[in-house]
Design goal:
The chain is about 55% helix and about 10% strand. It has about 425 residues and is of the alpha+beta class. The structure holds a DNA duplex (9 and 15 nucleotides).
Length: about 425
DNA sequence: AACTAGGCT
DNA sequence: GTATAAGCCTAGTTG
């Protein structure tokens, strides 16, 4: 840790609220008050179904390893896999701090096919996460008077200026897996209303393009191109027809990597590329987007000189270790943080401005919609069905125009009776 | 309270 | 030589 998290929050916390941050508190208070409706019977049924399935898996696991144990204990599982069953720990046997071999999903994935218990554990892990953190916790958080769950937003919960959400956290509701995504079906619109979700498309990459003033990337966004497709064409040097799914996936990973200050080595960790291939891609990427390269070098230098970086709106984040060359690891880490902070922070600033502007814009248009949730680049609202189109237009316009960059911001809107099954507008 | 794991943008 | 992708919140186990 470069800085104690708590210290940074305290130091910046005062500043954020008093000097820099936007007067968002009443807006957040309204959202917390509104909450979002839960389909309680749905959660009750899901809980039962998962419980039954997990009991089946548990039984099979005990049979497969020859004895019962606590399936939720990573230590017990580690001993069973790597001592009792004699499986070989992959990854040169990296041990956790407690001296056990890791049983993380990444490790288990590499052990697939070596023993039948591995797949069972993986399924159990997924289901147990969903049940404990979501199905059960959300039911417990349901307010009986309102029929809604009411989160708490913190304006100073993230060092970058993002909001955070807790008790319950509604910014990490599953979506990636099929079973997880189903949880969203339990978040429903209240009577006669629909949910409307509007998110910014690739806002962070647009911010990078704007800050770096990289001509090629700006041009791609101006032309309304699929940016990952454009990147794939650039790094592979092929035409649009020749871009395969895999090429686009690699390009997407690189684009994300840029935002996080990732290295070529990091690329090999999240793709199937070899180090040589990854290095080659990064080199080509910077040749095709020279403005990005210049920008990244510039922000590293600036952060070291000043000891801080700023978002487009002047939100600062300090990096005390960056100026001393003592600890290389710490310095590298702060360097990555210094690259990410203005990007993530500017996106947060823009979203906050939009959230300030939306309620008055809705009011001026005579619309009844209410903002319910914010998930960093997404807003979830609720509105009467017959006001859907008009509401979407007001929200999208407000978000698009929240803060002008040298390229337009773009949004996508979806609606539905629940958060899991939404259609494009 | 530390550790491990895993959910999201 | 070593580690290597930013930012969060929550649950279960362990000592």
């Amino acid at each position: 840790m470069p800085i104690m998290q708590a210290d940074l929050r305290r130091v910046n916390g005062t500043k954020l609220l008093e000097e820099i941050d936007l007067p968002l508190t009443p807006v957040l208070a309204d959202m917390e008050m509104s909450g979002i409706s839960l389909d309680l019977p749905f959660f009750e049924e899901t809980s039962k179904r998962l419980e039954k399935r997990m009991a089946e898996i548990e039984k099979k696991v005990y049979e497969a390893v020859g004895k019962p144990f606590n399936i939720n204990s990573t230590q017990q599982l580690s001993d069973i896999l790597f001592k009792q069953l004699g499986l070989e720990p992959p990854d040169r046997g990296n041990k956790t701090a407690s001296g056990h071999y890791s049983t993380s999903a990444g490790v288990l994935d590499l052990l697939r096919g070596k023993h039948p218990v591995v797949d069972m554990i993986l399924e159990n892990r997924e289901l147990s996460k969903i049940k404990s953190t979501y199905v059960d916790a959300l039911q417990a958080a349901l307010n009986a008077d309102t029929g809604c769950v009411h989160t708490s937003y913190s304006q100073t919960g993230a060092v970058t200026g993002r909001l955070s959400s807790s008790n319950p956290n509604l910014q990490n509701i599953p979506i990636r897996t099929e079973e997880g995504r189903r949880i969203r079906n339990g978040f429903v619109a209240s009577k006669n209303n629909v949910l409307l979700s509007v998110d910014y498309s690739q806002i962070e990459l647009r911010i990078v393009a704007d800050m770096a003033q990289d001509e090629a990337m700006l041009a791609a966004f101006r032309a309304g191109e699929d940016i990952h497709m454009t990147t794939a064409r650039a790094i592979y040097g092929v035409g649009p027809e020749a871009v395969t799914k895999n090429m686009r996936r690699h390009a997407k990973t690189i684009n994300f990597g840029i935002i996080y200050g990732m290295s070529a080595f990091g690329l090999t960790r999240s793709t199937d590329l070899t180090l040589a291939e990854a290095e080659d891609f990064v080199k080509t990427y910077f040749q095709k987007f020279p403005g990005i390269k210049k920008y990244l070098d510039g922000i590293r230098k600036l952060a070291a000189q000043q000891g801080y970086v700023e978002t487009l709106l002047g939100r600062r984040r300090y990096f005390p270790a960056l100026q001393s060359k003592q600890n290389v690891q710490l310095k590298n880490r702060e360097e990555r943080e210094a690259i990410n902070a203005p990007i993530q922070g500017t996106a947060a600033d823009i979203m906050k401005i939009a959230m300030l502007n939306i309620p008055p814009a809705l009011k001026a248009a005579g619309l009844k919609a209410k903002m319910l949730l914010q998930v960093h680049d997404e807003l979830v609202l609720e509105c009467p069905e017959n006001e859907l189109k008009e509401t979407a237009k007001v929200v999208q316009d407000t978000m698009t125009n929240a803060f002008p960059l040298s390229i337009p911001l773009s949004t996508e809107a979806r609606y539905g009776k629940n958060w899991g099954e939404m259609k494009s507008i």
